Amino acid sequence: MNSQSRICCLLASASVLAFAQPALAQTTQAAPAATPAPATDDSAAQDSQSRNQEIIVTGSRVLKDGSASPTPLTTISTESLVSAAPSGTISDALNNLPVFSGSRGSFSNPGSNATGVQGGNGNANVLNLRNLGTTRTLVLFDGHRVPPTLFNGTVDVDIIPQELIKNVDIVTGGVSAVYGSDAVSGVVNYVLDRNFNGLRAHGEMGISQYGDAATRDIGGAVGFKVGDRGHFEASVEHREADGIPNRVGARKWLNLAAIQGSGTTADPYYLGTNVRLPNYSFGGYIPSGALAGQTFGSDSTLSAFDRSTDGAYQNASMMAASKGTQVFGRFDYDLTDDIHFYVQGAGNFKKSTAYTGWNQLAGLTFSADNAYLPTAYQDALATAGQSTFTMNEILSAAPRIQTQSSTQQIYANAGLNGSLGKWDWDATYTHGVSRLHTVVNNVINYQNLAAASDAVTDGSGNVVCAASLVNSAYANCTPINLFGSSSPSSSALDYILGNVGYVSHTIMDSADASISGSPVDTWAGPVNVALSGEWRHTSFDMSSTTNTAYADCTNLTYNCTAGGTPMYSVMFPSSGKVSQSVKEAALEVEVPLLKDVPLFRSLNFNGAARYTDYSTSGHYWTWKLGGVWEVNDDIKFRGTLSRDIRAPNLYELFQPASTVWGNFNLRQSDGTYKTYYAPSVNVGNADLKAEIGRTYTFGTVLKPSFLPGVTLTVDYYHTVVDDAITTVQGFNAATQTACATTGTYCELIDSSGTTPIFYIKPYNLSKIKTWGIDGELDYRTRLAGQPLSMRLLVNYQPHIYYIQPGTATIDQGDAGWGQNGLMPSPSVQVSAFLGYQVTDNFKVDLFEHYRNGFRRSGVATQVYLDPRVRSYATTNLTFTFDTGSAWKITDSQLTFSISNLFNATPPLSGYYSGTTAAGQAYEFSDDPTGRAFMVGFKIQA
What we know:
The protein contains 12 helices and 45 strands. The chain is mainly beta.
């Protein structure tokens, strides 16, 4: 059965509607069900405990009832999230929800360089609401901003203590007026279980049916009272994932797939398999001269080059390997009956490893009498009067380029809160520091390569490096034989390969205070007011392990140009400490307008305004207006209008120049393109200013009395971001075309030398427009006397327009791979949960995720032979066995899960310039693992 058939059948039955708690508010205990279950249900005990607890509503500082929130708010319990990603993290599970699109997680293609949404860490878990960018999604931990853990200002949410999270609240709408910058597309708030008492532990092991992608996870938590006024809780979790280290051969369906063609009507892009590079071989391909069109075999003999069999390819990791440990501790204490103190801290220590492929040797020049070149070929070159020749090679004899990223993320928070008459107040201080150490192993040292590849015979008949005969600095030079895939010696490879890296530090200190209360009452109810202020200071610095940027070409005859040849094929910069400070003040009010009159059970107004002053990018006002009209018990309407900002982060402003070499096309004066192996240089832009977002939402909440236990919500949203910060790539064809009419783009292309230089730089250039509809259907009942819970989440987002002067508008909605790092955006996503307690000791959880098919690219001018990527759906099934109690254990469970139950394979896709990386041909959002199995246990005492 294919994916579409399965999802259609599944949605046609009640069992696919959903599993989870349909709460609209978060509380200090588990969120109550829409329809309270009888006392025999485990949730009833939790619900009864929560009734007298203080309610805190994510997205507001004044609302005490989540159902009164004008901004769409969805709460997902940890239990539900675990069923969505049995062998993953809470963050992996969140990325299965329809409101998230374009996030990065453990399933994403691992990155390796210092740029991109991964912030230098290819295994970072970063969240992206509505695919408007990870930097436009604000992450909170128990209502407080989480300090950035990656140097590009984003948060690796693995720092959140998964062991003690009870639910996650997702606010989908602009709330910068409440929480400050970055909350343009919404907020993700991880809600802590502050009152955990007891001891619990868990352990899981998982593996794919192919024997790879193994995971191991173990952790536990403890909580207890300290005297009559105190409470302590702590947790630790250690997780290891082996990843999938190879694309080639790891999955048969992948088969070296890549996009081919030029994207025109005459030569449309098409998806090919068994794609080989046209000008590279593993033994060395000679493109011109007397030996043109031939490639070296493993025995250093030449034969005619056949691309289909001799053409090389790259082999990167499909999934990064990682291991990490997360720790958390919290102590809180009632200093008096009215004053409460707490201090908490978290740490995340993670290391990831991924391969990006073999080193690529482009256009290497050799002497015609190179000592390793067989005599017959030396004679042929001499006959042709040719003193040198060039060769291209994928150096498969050497280890692949490997990126290792180690992160140390520390988060500490302390606060006081209490009451003063009718007023509640709180004050907190937060400190966050993140250290990222990235090392790229096995990269080419071009200076050593230039010396080693010029092999000659000395007076004693020994093969040596020519430079060693005239320069003592090359006394340890080991000559290398590059003529044949197995020709290089291990000692020669050791000589030409090296390691480069960098260390970055990101630090944030912040203090905030707020006071809220109800100063006056009206006939419709109390007027709630909240006043808050915040100060933040963020700094960033980076130091490179590379001492020099360019090779010293003294006494080197070939493959070295003074001031033009980099020392290494991957270069990282150094940066002194840069910083920014932010001061903010905000006011929020909730005013009841009507109550218990015809057609108005209640009508409430909610408004907020915030003044923000950035030391680096100026001052701004943000605001939000909203209202909730409750017609009766069955029908409710809600809506918001907001002005939001996203200020440029330090990396966008002051990013030091970093260089990556690759194959890039340069537009010629006649409109054709020529390929160069050239540098791409990432730089910052100190002139950036804040983006301005405007969002309005309108929705309804239905709880029909004739369908007990059913809740239906539908919300429309519309967002426009002006002066959007867009990273523009000089090597992009659209950028080069636009250079003719828009001078700004020409800054990114330097074609004055023999080798062009392309720049990547952020600008306030774009306008982003998107709209869509969120839907949610919840149902909780009993079947054969046992609890049955269902939930269906749907998002429809047909368009995400990126409007940029001088270039064609890109519609990334309903599209796959995009320009400038844009992520895939299905126009329809569905997540369905089902949970059924079959017996008192046996429960079944079913989760289905579906995305529709979409266009291969958001660039309208590109022509594809097959322009659509098919739909994709996966099903996860989890069995939980309650094994009861023994000794002092209160409860214990055994769990068995199958992810991707039907072994659905992601549809082949690819980036239109992906011909040099055959095999990277599935969408970022799709999981290539295939069917996988997990077994685990949980105990609680």
